[in-house]
Design brief:
Number of helices of chain A: 4
Largest sheet of chain A: none
Distance between the termini of chain B: 11 Å
Strand content of chain B: under 5%
Shape of chain B: elongated
Distance between the termini of chain A: 12 Å
Largest interface: A-B, 14 and 18 residues
Order of helices and strands of chain B: HHHH
Radius of gyration of chain B: 15 Å
Largest sheet of chain B: none
Helix content of chain A: 55-70%
Oligomer: heterodimer
Radius of gyration of chain A: 15 Å
Number of strands of chain B: 0
Structural class of chain A: mainly alpha
Order of helices and strands of chain A: HHHH
């Protein structure tokens, strides 16, 4: 398997989706935190964390090598955990999540792509697992 | 924000998305006509962005300047970025990347019009 297998074929499309979410979530969180942080500090901080995880996942998917593969697996796993936990919390505790964040209600505001994306990401990382050298 | 330019960009981006989607279905890289559509649409995007910046300094300030200019930068960069990323691999996956770029641009322009306060159309 070539070194850059992760960013070839379906990986190229996956990375494009990740980059879009990295930008959307980071920009949205930066805006929320800078303009009305006190309205919903928990939600906005989680929103910012989500953005950073998308950025990390995007970078790790683009870079070659086993270490970056591990970083990508970690980032995408945290992402899956995050969307499940935040999605559930946003349903149970509406008061803490008055404003939409990227992971609210499992990413409903973004067509549930945030829920599907980490699953596809893990499948793709499984398919492109680097061989031990 | 000039209404008809916004509409032109939305039409252009959806055409790019549809055409690129067609190329992807045929399992090939984007046809030349898609690339021409990308360049033409990007020219309109840049004209629109410059007009918007000029207008915002001439008595039509945006309600939320930070948000507005953030979207404006994204709108200008999305097609060139998608094109570069798509052309690095000349197959149906490159077409899918352009399909995505077109959809993202359409969404961004609609959001931009909401922020600016101009109705779509």
């Amino acid at each position: 398997m070539p070194d850059d297998a992760r960013r070839r074929g379906p990986g190229r499309v996956l990375i494009a989706v990740y980059a879009t979410f990295a930008l959307a979530a980071t920009a949205r969180a930066a805006y929320q935190i800078s303009t009305r942080f006190s309205d919903a500090p928990v939600a906005y901080l989680l929103s910012g964390l989500a953005g950073l995880i998308y950025v990390l996942a995007t970078v790790a998917l683009v870079r070659v090598g086993r270490t970056w593969w591990l970083v990508a697996v970690a980032a995408v796993s945290i992402e899956l955990l995050g969307v499940l936990v935040v999605g559930t919390l946003s349903l149970l505790d509406r008061a803490s999540f008055p404003d939409e964040t990227v992971w609210s209600v499992y990413g409903r505001g973004y067509g549930f792509i945030p829920l599907v994306l980490p699953v596809l990401g893990l499948l793709w990382l499984g398919k492109t697992r680097p061989v031990r050298s | 924000m000039i209404g008809f330019l916004g509409t032109a960009i939305i039409v252009g981006s959806l055409l790019i998305a549809a055409w690129a989607g067609g190329c992807a279905l045929r399992r090939r890289d984007p046809f030349l006509v898609v690339l021409v559509a990308v360049v033409v649409t990007e020219v309109v995007v840049v004209v629109q962005a410059v007009t918007a910046v000029v207008a915002s300094f001439n008595g039509q300030p945006a309600d939320a300047p930070g948000l507005f200019f953030g979207y404006l930068v994204a709108v200008v960069l999305v097609l060139p970025t998608a094109l570069l990323w798509a052309r690095a691999e000349r197959n149906q996956f490159g077409s899918l990347v352009l399909l995505m770029g077109g959809l993202v641009l359409a969404i961004l322009v609609v959001r931009l019009q909401q922020i600016w306060g101009t109705p779509v159309g």
